[in-house]
Amino acid sequence: MHNDIAEVLHHETTILSRLDAMARDIMRDYKDKPLTVVAILNGGLILMADLLRRVQLPLKIETVSVASYHGGTESSGTVTFNQSRLPDLSGQHVILLDDILDSGRTLHAIRERFAAECHPESMRICVLLRKLKERSCAVSSDYTGFDIGDEFVVGYGLDYMGRYRNLPYIGVLKPEAIAAPTTP
User: Which residue in 88, 102, 150, 159 is the catalytic one?
Assistant: First the structure.
């Protein structure tokens, strides 16, 4: 897997240090509020585990399973919810936790559906990575780990064709690994 990486953008120690700062910001903002964190599967799992262990507040953890990439390197434009029941968020202060803010379609679709059907008290967005690019949907993040260029990245929860999520760093995938992915 490591041979498929063209460049490491953020090493594990840098990521963990940034998560410490993000956790402090979240604790400051939610000190006396009922907090529910909703991690977006599967990309948000590693971020959820590492970030929330640093947040020393009582909180609830929920997950939502959605898909928008469907195996490629570009969002398909369609966000599919892979579950029939949404979490009970009524009256809760909610943080949507995702690996990356790219086109904005996924986070926009979740935010709109949660607002209409789950009735949270408030909703903010936390992402590990925010691509510096024009978005298809008007979405911004309230908590951001790192800003990156418009490159296809993997590792630390981010994948290509279901692979590379377990890399402990964030790296740019080589074009040849995208053109001819190896089988697991």
Answer: 102
